[in-house]
Amino acid sequence: MALSRQLLLLISVLFLMIFSVNFILSVSNIREYLEGEAEVHAQDTATSLGLSLSPHMAEETDPIIETMMNAIFDMGYYQEIKLVNVENQPLVTLTNKTMAEGVPGWFIEALPMKIASAESEISSGWNIKGVVHVTLNPGYAYRKLYEQAKSSLYYSLATFALSIILLHILLRVTLAPLKKIDQMALKIAAGKFETIDQLPWTTEVKNVTTSMNMMSAKVEAAIKSLNAKLESIGKKLLQDDLTGLPKKSSFETEMEHLFSAESDIEAYIFVIKIDGLNALVKELGTDAIDAFIKDFSEALTGVAENSGRGDIFVYRFIGSEFVLLVKQINHQQVEWLAKRLKHSFAEVGAKYKKPDIAHIGIVPFNPTGTIDSILLAGNEAYEQAQLIGANSFYIRTGDDPAKDIAEWKSLVFSIIDMKKYSVSFVGSIKSFETEQILMVDAFTRVLDKKGKQLSIATFVSIAEKFAKIIELDKGVILKVIEQIERKSIDYAVAINLSTRTIKSSDFRSWLAELVQQNQVISRQLVFSLSAYAVAKDFSAYKEFIEFVHQLNARVMIKRFETQSLSPELAKELNPDFIRLARDLAQGVATDKGKAEFAETMKDIGDLLDISILAENVNSDDDYIRIKTIGIAGASR
Fold it and tell me: pTM value?
């Protein structure tokens, strides 16, 4: 119950108690007063009437006696006036038993009044001739008492109503800051740190508001500090320590974007390896080889920055292996760029008196392939380049991609239309707290006409390219719900959704209706969104996450690392889970940077009420270290 209602109820009860006591005392006092007045009036009437009748009592049958008594009786509120002689024989009796009109019977029964009566002896000369008895009718007193009680009640109710209105206004003004404080606390919990500038005038509420402002400012400062620390650590983890170039994980993220692009992008991958690096280490020494690798990487970045040919990204995978990803470039420009690299390698080799230092394998981007298959083709091209000559390159021409895509399109449409795909649950994430399964991934398995398993990445990429992905995502969700119910599963299931799907109003309407029909398991549905995709269309994903929360379902951002999505943006999204990129959990037991990154993410998750998860932690040492850090759970 709201505080304002509690106060109103309390004050109303107190008012009722005070009013009841006051009302009872007031009515009781009025009754006593009226009873006293009635006794005095009765005695005055008896005395006065006795004196008036005294001269006429010599003759008991004198008609003037009754006339005088009738005159008095008709002028007042009397129940009975009786005259008796000395032998106590009634001479005249006047009676009126009528009660007061307009007074309820229950009122008379609840407040009985003593009937006032008096008598006076009548003398004639020195002898007593009779006695007059006067009894007042209580109806008049009851009417006066009833009217006074009604007036007291009406005025009290009016005062009560006015007091409640004034109190309600006062409470609204006084307690309004508490509503602001409540909203402020909810926003702090959601990661939005605001302060109340206009402080309330009530001392206690003002103190609470000031404390909340201080807490909000401190939590915001802590979050900003953790975000800055996380971003700094994330950048270091994604960059090669020696050259400062992005690592393989950054290349994989960019390739995923290429695979998920709705339109075709012409791109090439350059696989570059320094020949005989181990022998060079023995020959030149560690310091000299570090300088050599730095010069080599600077040669790569120099060509990339000054080529004027397409968008070029340079990566260092490990040791002697480098990769260039070049977008928006044709075959002739690729050849020109390769020649520039060859010339640059020769210059670096001359500096170290090594005429032949590296070779280049070049392959075109294949939208129907995978990252591993493209890199494998690049390595094969590199081996061909070694056979050509010093610092040479080899450009491998792939199969006709248009023909491949056409075949893929036909296959994808057929499989989705006929629902010839299955969904299995993989990658169990165990809770470190309960040691129970916290979540699994819904994995879609697809076979071609020969029964051979197809690459799901390629299948999904083609489905999204030709707007068939929404139908596929719907089918997967239905299969997941069917398995949850059939197998009585009690843990959460992560379901991947594409950008095209989350933007579809038709899908949202369908999902809302489906969840409405399956409310019991709504919390088990966790919609898994790629951090890279979220960053590319932040507003659309933010809106979708809010929509999912309204359905009482949950959301997970997967493959999280600071290059794809900043911690500040992740805070605005308010997901239920964040799953770290695989590479961030590999080697965490020995890599202080990765351990510090996981610890910082855990601290941010605790502050924002987001569960942090790890994926594919294979090493026992890494698993123990992740558990020690205190994140929610991990898969192996």
Answer: 0.64
